[in-house]
Amino acid sequence: MKLVLLMVATLVAFAAAQGVDHSSRTTCALTGKVPTEPRSLSFCHQFNDESCCLPGFDAENEELFTNMRDVGLSCRIRGSIRQTPLAKLYCLNCDPHQPKYVRVDSTGTEHMLICKDWASAAFGVSASLKNLTVFDECGLLISSSCLDGNGTEIPDRDRYTCGDDIVIPSNIWDPSLSEVLNLENFFNFPNLGTPNFDDFHYRVVSNVQCTDPQAQTDDPDCIRTQQQNQDYYGMQIDYPEMCFGSAASVSAMFISILLFAFAAVVFF
Question: What is the pLDDT of residues 13-25, one digit of tens each?
Fold first, then answer.
């Protein structure tokens, strides 16, 4: 993985790290540093007070999101694109809580935790998007993978370097699978998820506290507390798990949006 993710490295090696204080393992995947107040962000402006990304990453998020939705004049998003669920997903890499969304299982797989209630409300069975059929009229323009002469994918290539394809997300919805598995298939579709996070596996989990027995399992459908995190990894950890879309992260986004709107009224 080309990103500097010190937190993940220590989690993978947790068995060898017992007794060592890793309480500072709150570094962001994109920067390898703790969240801080950035220079002004535009696309992901809800994180201007504290962020895990730099303006360059913010600009890349906007560029790739615009490319994905560049499917014809009649398909342009009306209103603020920043309020759409996909735009919020594209700003996950700027979210200051991002380090807390990461879970590493015993195989070393790096999971990015997504709240089931948020994912279902945004994309699922009960959502206004109705099993992703909202994209049926326009589709999404998804980057094609780069392949060598043998048809093997070439890793670490920027999106849209090797072309693109129109994808209709509802076509990947399998009625024989659960809503959670269908949502995970959508989030993990190649080149669709959060920019620079292709090496993560998106995991949809219930935003409820784990019981102690659940917390000791490898990849529970719940959120570990700080103590449960510490017990599972066998090292000093000073924060609980979180999932993207939780009340705390949504509240932070909402407050930042209100502040942005207030500033616009005052200064413009």
Answer: 333 333 333 343 5
